[in-house]
Specification:
Elements lengths: L1 H18 L7 H7 L4 H29 L1 H20 L4 H19 L1 H12 L6 H29 L1 H19 L6 H7 L3 H18 L1 H30 L4 H26 L4 H18 L6 H25 L6 H29 L2 H19 L10
């Protein structure tokens, strides 16, 4: 029991190191500096999400069958390989391979991390504290991102080489911490099953869950669309602001500020979850996010829009994870969480390069407005179908 409790502290340290990624917001402008066009870089992100779409659910099932601990370690190793490939990128082919590795790394972690925490809490009889702990965990992740963005801006001012080197060393330390994780007895029982049988069963049980709970399916789609639009605008904001002649340190500062607000959103989310229905939460986010998107039409208001979206993104991530964990049994938890991430990948695969194509023919500002209007109309149709309550 004591070893399992130590999982929580160790996981906080592991994820702090993992998300203090100094290249997180600068990979786009880095590849542009290597001579790739905006459309080429956007297609790389699309390749990332095509790969993620293919591997998302299988890697979630792998985490359920083989174990969260080693799945997460392998994921970190894949991310280090991605960083090395990106650092020494010499052709578009190398860039493609690097992004495929990055996608698999993301897939291996996406369902495993949250499932690892929830199963540990369930094992020690404290699963009712999940949302509160997840709020703290997400806040910590966002703070790590703040430091990473600030550090990235400063390191890149020296050279990209320093940023890549610090990133790789940090991830190697995180792997050392992950090696000391303790698997839960739920996971150990799962490991004893025949692999092929368990793998197929993961899909069958997940499909049955959504058949019984259609509003949960629509809730996942709605959250994924909000997260996708936020991610698209955040990544293109770096290019937009650089086109306005902003320095990497200034861009890093604003992303750090966004990280602070995201941490605040995550911290407050468990209080909101106890008082407001899921549908109300979604409507509030649609209205506020639409305003945030519209602010990108004016350069001097784009900062306000970015900060608003950052706050919403931090809270939404915690609320969606809490909802999915509440409606999902331990044996398929990582699989279901991976299906949730799969929707995000599907939308990013389409919207990210589409936005890149838009700005090739239109201005940044006009592209922001068109995307905001289209997204708002889709959400107006989608939200009424997600009628679950976010409380027990």
């Amino acid at each position: 029991m004591a070893k399992l409790r130590h999982n929580l502290i160790k996981n906080y340290v592991f994820e702090f190191l993992k998300y203090s990624n100094v290249m997180h917001i600068f990979w786009f402008v880095y590849l542009l500096s290597k001579g790739f066009t905006v459309v080429e870089v956007a297609l790389l992100e699309s390749i990332f999400h095509i790969t993620s779409l293919i591997f998302e659910t299988p890697t979630g099932a792998i985490a359920d069958v083989l174990g969260r601990k080693y799945t997460r370690i392998i994921g970190m190793l894949f991310h280090i390989l991605y960083l090395v490939g990106l650092w020494y990128v010499s052709s578009y082919g190398v860039a493609i391979i690097s992004f495929i590795l990055a996608a698999i790394s993301y897939n291996l972690e996406s369902g495993s991390g949250t499932a690892f925490v929830y199963d540990t809490l369930k094992e020690i009889g404290e699963e009712t504290t999940f949302t509160q702990r997840e709020s703290f965990r997400e806040s910590l992740i966002r703070i790590a991102s703040v430091l990473g963005n600030l550090g990235g801006g400063l390191l890149i001012a020296l050279s990209y080489g320093w940023a890549f080197l610090v990133n790789i060393i940090t991830y190697m330390i995180a792997i050392g911490i992950a090696l000391s994780f303790q698997e839960t007895t739920v996971q150990k029982r799962k490991e004893k099953k025949a692999f092929q049988f368990a793998f197929v069963q993961q899909y069958q049980e997940s499909i049955q869950l959504f058949k019984k709970n259609i509003p949960l399916f629509f809730a996942m789609v709605a959250f994924a669309l909000i997260s996708t639009m936020t991610a698209v605008l955040a990544y293109y904001a770096t290019v937009y602001w650089e086109s306005l002649q902003w320095s990497s340190s200034i861009i890093g500062f604003w992303f750090a500020a966004g990280g602070v607000l995201a941490a605040l959103g995550a911290f407050l989310s468990h209080r909101i979850e106890k008082r407001v229905s899921l549908k109300a939460i979604l409507w509030i986010n649609v209205i506020v996010a639409s305003l945030g998107f519209a602010f990108f039409y004016l350069p001097f208001l784009s900062i306000v829009g970015f900060l608003v979206l950052s706050f919403l993104d931090g809270g939404l991530y915690v609320l969606m994870n809490a909802l999915l964990n509440r409606f999902t049994q331990s044996e398929i938890r990582a699989t279901v969480l991976s299906i949730n991430s799969m929707f995000f990948s599907l939308f990013m695969m389409v919207l990210f390069p589409l936005f890149g194509a838009f700005i090739q023919f239109w201005t940044f500002e006009m592209s922001f407005i068109v995307f905001a209007l289209g997204w708002s109309l889709i959400m107006i149709l989608l939200v009424p179908k997600a009628s679950l309550k976010s409380t027990n």
